[in-house]
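An example makes the point: we let one protein speak, the chain in one-letter code, the fold tokenised, and here it is:
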Amino acid sequence: MNPTTKKFSNTLKYALGPGLILAAAAIGVSHLVQSTRAGALYGFTLIWAIVIANLTKYPFLEFGPRYTVVMKESLIQGYKRLGTWAIGSFGVFTVFTMCIVQAAVTVVTASLANELTGLELSPLFMSAIILVICLFLLIKGQYSALDGAIKIILVVLTISTLIAVVVAFFKPDAMVKPSAPSIWDAAGISFLIALMGWMPILLDASAWHSLWIMERSKQTKQELHLKETLIDFNIGIIGAGVLALAFLSLGALIMFGSATDFATSGSAFASQLVELYTSTLGDWAYWIIIVCAFTAMFSTTLTVTDAYPRTCSHLFNLNRLDRPDDIPWYSSYRGLLVIISFFSLVILYFAGSNFIFMVDLATSVSFLTAPVFAIINYKLIYSDHFPEEKRPSTWLKWLSWVGLVFITSFAVLFMIWKFILS
């Protein structure tokens, strides 16, 4: 085996994993629902929006693996170095949104599970089943179970999605479509904000990625190197962007021009999505579409179920990381895995018709805090304690400035639209 082949093999063996888990966390409602709706409502005209959203968030997500590998510590430990304002902002936002976000992605997955199995269980009961499956996968194997499951799920998701796109492209009337409506009206701008704000993933997920990298290093008992880790990151984040464009293409090729009133909730739209595909492509396509949709959402639910307990345990025990035996059960990974999942189901039980309001509230906070997390990650990677020779190249620094201006402007636009004009 020549040196280049051997090096690439080692990358696949030891480094590949955390970036794929990040991609799995990203490919959820933002892809399955929002990207598909973008194509369904506006054809191919919003490709630019998905590309810009991915590009402008790329630097701040890339800073996560860069900092972790170089400093041999998590982003959360880095936030503590920056001061109370940084670690406090991250902690408050995480604790405030974790159960709401987990409840939201789980209930969408539950609706697709009902569709896949033919069962007619209540969303709450099916959500409980989904979470029990996730707990079963994670509570014993922890990172190794997550890593193995996500690699299988992403292979199934990618293959089924690409098959669906190819089939849709070769439909006789695939390219015979009416002109796309303008995005620059009240409804269009509102949708554009929602589409770009969650694409490809929230910026605080960079802290999740940081912890997955550290766990990968423990699992393989190998010291990870920056180049190989960034290859893993790029495979994951670029793959997530490509799948976002694939879901947009499905919406544009199959649904655009169908004059269908699309459901506004994630769970209702997910079921409607499957029905529209099969009615257009034929019943034979049912399994391709349902497997594609379910794996997209289950991968997100599984990663989120792991991410919040792992993050909170790390956050709550920063002073005891070198003494794992001193960590109390209720702030340990396994303890929080059960506690957060339980309270997510409690939210689903009591929220009822107010659940959409709670999701909107969490989404609003996400928009408003995005510039804060962008600034925190930027200041961390350009802080005095980070080696200058390991900092990003000039083009990435420039892109981060452009991204910061864009994300801040986007947050201001969101506030104006949400709280003044609506």
